[in-house]
Each structure stands twice: as structure tokens, then as C-alpha cells.
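>> received
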Amino acid sequence: MTTYAVLDCAFLLLLAATGREDAALLAALGWATVCGSLAAIYLVRLRRSKRNRPTHRRDLDRWVVAQWTIAPTIIVLASLLLDLALLRHAGRFLDAAAIASVVAGLGVYVSATVDWYVIMPGVSGLVRPAPCQTPGKERWARVSKLWFFHRGFATILVPVCILGVFSFMAATSEDVGSERLAWIGAIGLVGAVFYRYQNGALTALWWGLRAPKHVGDIVTLEDGGLAYVVDLAVQGINYMRLNDDRSYSGARFPHKKDDDIPLELVRRLKPHNPAGAIVLSAPCGNSSDDCSPQAEWCSGVNWYCRCNPDAHG
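>> returned
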């Protein structure tokens, strides 16, 4: 997120440099407002849950707040105190690129903020019992749909903005011959690359309405083994293998996943819900006070657990 914040600050300065100081100022204020609203929702949920934040999460929360307050403040002060419009006559391509970069950059940062303030507090057990404590059924449907949707949206946003720049250049080209054809060719190339490598984002957007699988689900793999769904992405779902009795006996937080399943194969997974079955055995405990390496109450199957500092870094 730090890298995104630095890039967004640069993109806003570029927008101001093209003569759009007011637009840069409004975008910076909107950035801070949206992130501040998400942070407020997170703090309310945290207080209602009465769960303690581990030190590593508390420190990183402060750092994230610093990102979306300091960067917009720099833009506001620079717009009000300095004449930034050094590139106001640089041409229509730079104008369009500056606008597109701000839209794409802020969209990606807000998506990351949704992850930080909405998704992770739930799946890590900060504001409610984590999926490893209460897996399956419809408990995690809303979170899973939001997870798919915002990641699909962020993935699509960048190529859409690039296509927007190229389309603008083609539409406003005074040369109806070779120049316009070149821009149309660039549009086709970007579209083909996106469809070849990132078409799963369209599926993820659709699953934002009705996700076929949810985080925390225990499913039966094609080889007959059991798995715990730990992560959702536009490429597919990531899982950790379980024992036949639905327990996890591997190392504690060894890695984010044992393997993944491509998006197009996710619907084939069958839920493992035998009659009278218990939920995931040996899940994370209810205590949020002890996250020391010696604590024995956490199984370690959930990479995003609040007690795993690597997942919150």
C-alpha cells in the first residue's frame, strides 16, 4: 500500500502539472474521505467486537492512516501554495494519461484499503470469529462476494483506463489515416492481452453478485482430499489441505496456501458437509490476548490470522 500511495501522490502532482490543480485537489480530498470512512467503519466494528488488536496490527494501522492522510495533504498544500501547472500545454496525450493514471491509481489504492479495513479484519478474527472458527454455510457469503468484486474491479480498472486513453487519442486524432489506425491497433492489442491473461477478473466481478465458494469453506478436492479455502483471487481460490477428520495438523502459518484451483474449476468443488460433521477441528481460539509463538490455541491453518504478523505486513 505504501508503493500505491507514493504513486498516487505522483499521479496527482502530474494531474496538477497539466493545469488541473482543482481536479487534483478534489481527488486528494476524495481519497482521504473514502479511506477515512472505511477506517471509521473498521474502528466501530473493532470496538463493538471488544477484541484486542495485536501490536503488529496496531502499528500497521497507524502507518496506513499516515499514508492516506499525509499524501493527500501534500497535494492539497502544493495545489494551494504553488503554481504546479508546468505542463499545461504538453498535449492531449499527457492530459489524458494524467487523468487515467489518477483514476486507476486511486481505484487500486481504495481496493487495497477495502482489503485492509473490511476484508482482513473479518477473516483474521479481529472483529468477529475468523472463518477457521466458524467455517462454511452462508456465514462468509457477503465477505466473499465483496472480496471477489473489489479484486476483479481493481484488476479491470487499469486496462480500462489504458483503453480509455487510446480511445480518446483515436477519437480526437486529426489524422484519419495512419495515426488513427495505430491507436485502434493499440486498443486491440491491449484488449487481447487483457483477455488472454486477466479475463478471470470478469468472472470475479460476476461472482461479486453470487460467489460459488466462500472463504472458510471446507471442500472435497478432485483427488478426494479435504481442503480449507483460505483466500480468494481473480486467478482462483487458494486452499490448505486438511486431514480426513477435517482437522489441520501442519505447521503453524507455513505459507499462505498449499495450492490453488483455477477460477474455471472452482464450481466443480464439492462442499464437504457430511451429516453430523463438526466444523474445522483445532481452529483459532477465541482469545485475542496471546499471540506469542508459544501460544497453543491457534492451529495456524488461516494465514490471515491476526496472530500472523507476516500476513499484515
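>> The radius of gyration is 23 Å.
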